[in-house]
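Changelog excerpt

This revision adds worked examples to the README so contributors can see how folded entries look when concatenated. The first example is reproduced verbatim below.
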Amino acid sequence: MTTTLADVASSGATLRAFLHGLPGVDRVGADQRAAMLGSRSIKTTAKARAIDLAISMVDLTTLEGADTPGKVRALCAKALHPGEGAPRVAAVCVYPDLVPVAAQALAGSGVKVASVATAFPSGRSSLEVKVSETKLAVAAGADEIDMVIDRGAFLAGDHLKVYEEIQAVKAACGDAHLKVILETGELATYDNVRRASWLAMLAGGDFIKTSTGKVSPAATLPVTLVMLEAVRDFRDATGRQVGVKPAGGIRTTKDAIKNLVLVNETAGDDWLSPDWFRLGASSLLNDLLMQRQKLATGRYAGPDYFTLD
């Protein structure tokens, strides 16, 4: 199979044949399995460990037109010191023009600077613009690039165009890691989610990511399940491990823990690390901190006890 994968993008026809030859997804089965795993109950010590693990996986994100340097610096301070005894988050994700601010605030901390690029969130721009924006973000200090695929090209069946764009952006990343955003809410079917996942991995993506957070539905459990199955099967076929990042709509500790259970039961504990699993979120961190304090003290703090993101 490895030899086949090496030649799979030799033409648009071979790539399309491979992607459409992947096993179909049983939608009912995927929905039921995700619902079953999402109903698991985790308590006491295990819950405390899960909360800290989830905090360490958060890509703390602000992607608004009204973002300011001051807001980014405040977000970086929170990323470094989320709460007493709590671990640092994995990354802070910002627009490319604010990368220098985040890079300065996080220098030497181990918290990564992530930046969206490639005409986020639509992906509707020329390849030259996408590559240029990626290079500028990396030069400014981004450790990770979150790119969006051209969903129009994918849905029109032009898989080779999407593949080549991912390859070009990956090359422009240099040493920075590439997260490929599928925007699963626009892909319509679980079969398309599986195909897009494999396409992104074949093209060299280091992570596959559900969503921009700008389209609904975003990071549903069944979609994340399909993507986790894809990275598991891809590693079995190639020996290369790829990360997964659900983003959009993950707001509560319950949501985060459901995702961790899904990871453990689907891909395995090799993915239970910030190196291989991230949670894209803006409001999630406060709920994790509230639940963490409740476990430690037996009392809930009010929402105003924590800084607003």
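The second example, added in the same revision:
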Amino acid sequence: MFATYLIGLREGLEATLVVSILVAFLVKSERRDRLPQVWAGVGLAVALSVVFGSLIQYTSTSLLRTSESREFFEAVTSVAAVVFVTWMIFWMRKAARSIAGELRGKLTEALAVGSLAVAGMAFLAVVREGLETALIFYAAAESVAGGTGAGSLFALIGGIATAVVIGFGLYRSALKINLSRFFTWTGALLILVAAGILKYGVHDFQEAGVLPGLNDQAFDISATLDPNAWYGALLAGMFNITAAPTVLELIAWVAYAVPVLVLFLRKPAQPTRPATTPVPPAATPAANASAESAAEPTATPAEPAPAAVDAAAVPSPRA
């Protein structure tokens, strides 16, 4: 259940930050009359995400008749969830610094068009997070014992509720956290969760007959890693680490987790400022003009973007 809680916390906080930026911009711009349209767009995005998640669950439990088709469907959704998780964490690290300005710019354009445009802009800004949450939640919950039961659902809701509380505290300037460090740690944990989801997807492909090697175990350490013990259940529930994986499951887990973690945790290279040759002061204005015309212009490199969302990206209505 920790995996689904982490998904709700991470995705929920991203969505909450987006909503906070939109609301704070309208409050500062003295356009509170457009707040109902923003909340309408957010509500519609949440409703669509719930419908999408219900449709995934209904397809798996009711529309697919054979066990092979259900295993294949779960395998496909697992791979899709891994793709979305990977894209999400790297996109957030790259776009964190500019996301606030982009949202304000789009909202300014929407305000010039009308109320429907404002609602549509808020809907589009939140619905991506909601659809990702529904897909990743289904894949993560199915990869552990219990599936998408009440416990996993409550864990997801708890993560989202925690994200809303954190986001509201940031919005009201009552809470200060290092969002860059937060997204780095949660991103690393989500990579391990995604590795477990991919491992589960490979197992489903094997059970569906798409991939071979269902009975080819890489090792069996059940005597050391008891699946019935609390630590065995914790590792299986968080990262789908089991005592007797197949060879392909182990290869998939390692081949994904190791390089993606290295790329994610690697610090971006800092740009080096080019050396400039100082121009000696001239004695006369004419000599100054001659020296300036002879000197080659040098470009100042842009400041490096932070690894994740900066707390300053969430404007406070008190400013």
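Reviewer comment on example two: The chain is about 70% helix and 0% strand. Residues 282-314 have pLDDT under 50 and may be disordered.
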